[in-house]
Amino acid sequence: MLLKGMFSAAIRTDEREIAAVEGTPFPEEEIAMAGAIARRRHEFATGRACARDAIGQLGRPPMPLPMGRDRAPLWPDGLVGSISHSRSHCAAAAALRSDGFLALGLDIEEAEPLDEDFAEEICTPQERAWLAGQPSHHRGLLLKALFSAKECAYKCQYALSGALLDFQDLAVDMDLGEERFTAHFLRDVPPFRRGDRLAGRIRLRSAHIVSAMSIA
């Protein structure tokens, strides 16, 4: 299980292989999938199925999770959550606001190296310097890990800021041995200030990279 131990016990999760899932979205969700290709519809249905299972673990009944204008899921009142998928795997996390949670972030990527040419777009100068100091045969995968950590942090902060950030707006420090990372803001993004830090977990497995974060 990719997510085991990635979140605190109060945050409930579900994950599954996309190919193994069958299901029909709620009518409110179907609107978002009008005209989508079959693969995208299957990814969407799997993500919603994972989210409903996580919500069910919190004692809530099945309910629709429509897509907002920004394409992010609209979580029911009293809940926060996050959904992510790779080509083959999907996962979701959900938590109760009454337990003190303000936002969650989750990202899953295939554990396939990125071309190092993307480092200019994804990384700050300090991150590029860090990558340059790593063994050459690991740099592509580490770049993918940096990408995943930033995606996770972006999704988590977006629930509070509503701001679409550039990759250069956050800097990430990773400790892969401890499966942890910290993302800090390089500019003010209300309610966050430059220098504010968000702590997350990151895990590399043979097939996937997964990053997780919560704000309470």
Spell out the key features of this protein.
216 residues; alpha+beta; Ribosomal Protein L22, Chain A; three-stranded antiparallel β-sheet; 27% helix; globular
Name the CATH superfamily classification of the largest domain: 4'-phosphopantetheinyl transferase domain
Choose one word for the global shape. Answer: globular
**Helix/strand class:** alpha+beta
Under the CATH scheme, the architecture of the largest domain is Alpha-Beta Complex
Q: In terms of per-residue confidence, which ranges show pLDDT below 50 for 5 or more consecutive residues?
A: none
What is the share of helical residues?
Answer: 25-40%
Number of beta strands: 8
Our measurement of the CA-to-CA distance between the termini, rounded to an integer number of angstroms, reads: 24 Å
User: Strand percentage, roughly?
Assistant: 25-35%
Number of structural domains: 2
CATH class of the largest domain: Alpha Beta
The main β sheet shows up as: 5 strands, antiparallel
Could you characterize what this model shows?
It is a single chain. This protein has two domains: 12-99, Ribosomal Protein L22, Chain A (Alpha-Beta Complex), CATH 3.90.470.20; 107-215, Ribosomal Protein L22, Chain A (Alpha-Beta Complex), CATH 3.90.470. Strand 7 and strand 8 (208-215) form a beta hairpin. The protein is α+β, with helices and mostly antiparallel strands and 216 residues long. The two termini are 24 Å apart. 27% of the residues lie in helices and 26% in strands. The mean pLDDT is 92. It has five helices and eight strands; from the N terminus they run E-H-H-E-E-E-H-H-H-E-E-E-E.
